[in-house]
């Protein structure tokens, strides 16, 4: 019997818009089966990249989020150690990993860059499932109108969105599973 897809809902917290000049501060992933079974979670805070610095606009925003900032700066690990742990965690899961994020364009950019830079490979290959694009297809709306504000309440569980990477990965993973259930029922 083939292994099921396992959706790795992922959220990152960063100190700027792109990796390299800026750092990924925190990485949280929640592994879900399509039936909304939460299989496992992963969370790590990362040391800053050598020579990188926070972007002024991002750092201004962080000043409005003191609890989330404190959480992502607690016990950071060197990026190479953190990303090797992440790959080991993914590979320990019983299923074919599918990276998923809202928006995938931002989170995958950081995760993929860090994986290639520090591990030399990505267990996700070159692909990521973008929840906003899936919403666009389900809602039959333009992409820019497929925001969380315009999504039906039935897609959201009562889970917090705290700007702490793991909290947000869990919340968005549950939303993805609700969207997948609706997609399946519409076939």
UniProtKB/TrEMBL annotation:
<dbReference type="InterPro" id="IPR036397">
    <property type="entry name" value="RNaseH_sf"/>
</dbReference>
<dbReference type="Pfam" id="PF16473">
    <property type="entry name" value="Rv2179c-like"/>
</dbReference>
<dbReference type="GO" id="GO:0003676">
    <property type="term" value="F:nucleic acid binding"/>
</dbReference>
<dbReference type="InterPro" id="IPR033390">
    <property type="entry name" value="Rv2179c-like"/>
</dbReference>
<feature type="domain" description="3'-5' exoribonuclease Rv2179c-like">
    <location>
        <begin position="11"/>
        <end position="175"/>
    </location>
</feature>
<dbReference type="InterPro" id="IPR012337">
    <property type="entry name" value="RNaseH-like_sf"/>
</dbReference>
<protein>
    <recommendedName>
        <fullName>3'-5' exoribonuclease Rv2179c-like domain-containing protein</fullName>
    </recommendedName>
</protein>
């Amino acid at each position: 019997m083939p292994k099921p897809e396992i959706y790795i809902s992922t959220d990152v917290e960063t100190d700027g818009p792109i990796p390299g000049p800026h750092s990924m501060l925190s990485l949280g992933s929640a592994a879900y089966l399509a039936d909304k079974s939460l299989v496992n979670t992963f969370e790590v805070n990362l040391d800053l990249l050598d020579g990188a610095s926070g972007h002024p606009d991002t750092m201004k925003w962080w000043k409005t989020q003191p609890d989330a900032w404190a959480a992502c700066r607690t016990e950071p690990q060197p990026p190479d150690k953190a990303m090797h742990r992440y790959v080991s965690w993914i590979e320990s899961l019983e299923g074919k990993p599918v990276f998923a994020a809202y928006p995938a364009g931002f989170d995958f950019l950081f995760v993929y860059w860090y994986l290639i830079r520090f591990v030399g490979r990505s267990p996700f290959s070159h692909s990521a499932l973008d929840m906003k694009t899936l919403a666009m297809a389900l809602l039959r709306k333009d992409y820019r109108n497929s925001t969380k504000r315009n999504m039906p309440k039935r897609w959201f569980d009562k889970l917090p969105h705290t700007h702490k990477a793991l909290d947000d990965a869990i919340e968005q993973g549950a939303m993805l599973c609700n969207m997948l259930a609706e997609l399946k029922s519409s076939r």
